[in-house]
Amino acid sequence: MERIWLKNYPPGVPHDIDPDQYSSLTDLLETAFREHGNSPFSVCMDRWMSYKELDELSKALGAWLQDKGLAPGSRVAIMLPNLPQFAVTMAAILRAGYTCVNVNPLYTARELQHQLKDSGATTIVILENFASTLQEVIEHTSIQHVVVASIGDLLGPWYGRWMTFAVRHLAKMVPEFELPLAGGRTVTPFKKAIAQGRHLSLKPVPQTLDDTAFLQYTGGTTGLSKGAVLTHRNIVAAILQAEGWFTPALASIGDLRKVNSIAALPLYHIFALTLCLLAIRQGSHLTLVPNPRDFGKFIDVLKQRPFHMLPGVNTLFNALMQHPMFKTIDFSSLRLTQAGGMAASEGTAKHWQAATGSAMIEGWGMSETCAIGTNNPVTQTHFSGNIGLPLPSIDIAIKDDAGQTLPVGSSGEICIRGPNVMTGYYQQPEENAKTFTADGFMRTGDVGIMDQEGFTRIVDRKKDMIIVSGFNVFPSELENVISTCPGVVECAVVGIADTMQGETIKVFVVRNDPLLTEEAVSRFCHDNLTGYKRPKYIEFRDELPKSNVGKILRRELRSNK
Q1: Domains of the chain as residue ranges with CATH
Q2: How confident is the model over 184-204, as pLDDT tens digits?
Q3: CA distance 230 to 99
Q4: Distance CA 378, CA 12 (A)
Q5: Taking the model in full, what pTM does it have?
Q6: How many other CB atoms are there within 10 angstroms of residue 478's CB atom?
């Protein structure tokens, strides 16, 4: 197929990448540890970790895991927030020859049980704050080994002990738990596992790019979550694609080891995970933010030292701008504001650029594509409202329900093909058969239009479409428009049953101007939307329901309409 988008690549961005320069993702990690040993890898609560320390700690934990006699390729779950323990555990699992299963630490017992059972994980590394949830379900899973981390384990001997004490006894953030030891199950503190592993040798394990590196579970917003099988090749490709795409934004810094990226998005999420691994390849460092919802502390972190990359979702950028201390942040070093995970709104983007001087660069992707599938050129100076161009080595096609590629300018399902695309869902042959087309493209469930320049605009997800008197209405279009209404912070649009029209439109609005009225929003919609697209109902809310990665949950709004 003709890759019409290549003509709009910024100078210096490669058309293709070569994952075969590494034999595996583990090879990439080992190379980075050798090359960047003395450079800083992360800072968390003012405590630094070097690449040398990451190398040594992950080697010890990997040796400890091997000593447990886990079968090659065994699934090991990681249930940790953005702490140094996350990268140590991830690298340990991969170096030991196992598969990482990322778990959202805020999962309910039901959600945790499903993911552990579905993945077949036999080992889990978990922060003690969430161990009580594991206690509820562990006997209904295959978990045999539990490594329990405390928040201060890698924050230094004195400060670390103080942080752990404060979290346990002052903040009382660690519910009581007692993990059963029946059937030979082991429970080991994180620091003890590291200490024991230092006396063991990490055995090299033959790995290829076709081996499974991660089971990355989808959000599950439409049912039970599914594990996307991501190979070493998939992840290496995604790292190289992101590197190629972001290079023009970071070129002015020179030495990439000086780049400071803000890790506020959770590392268990594929978007943040890919950027973490990119930092490792480049030898740059991450500022880890364990709880970005505490915006006061988050802003304090942003004020401590210059930062160059700020990935986030629309809701995160919005919340930052609403905080009274936002204007005290120095954005002069910021080279890239990368929006992903959900659609960025034009209103948020305009306010962000006016406040920071940095254009919001929107991308698109999903767990199944190792995060970024398309992205706007990082050289753009203004928000575009589309999802940009396919990254190097990626093909995008707009297809109909029969899998036929539609002409440029037609509306259809966005389908993607490339070395970053998953091999399929774990143990879901029927789902896989529906997901992939005969010519190897993955159906994304997103409806979009590609223009003559190769830029794609998302119309919406198929299931979110509202039909009003036979007209198709796409919530994202309305949300983009209404978000620009003065006084609106964010909004969400849903369809509700209507005896006359089949469905009618309702918008939920969060406002920062208490004087904003339903009439004013309605008038704005009248001025900016054609008749059938105007919401019939307007409801003000103090906040919108969101997933743990910041996506607005339309399904909850539908059920509580």
Answers
A1: 4-18+230-461 (3.40.50.12780), 36-207 (3.40.50.980), 465-559 (3.30.300.30)
A2: 999 999 999 999 999 999 999
A3: 10
A4: 12
A5: 0.88
A6: 23
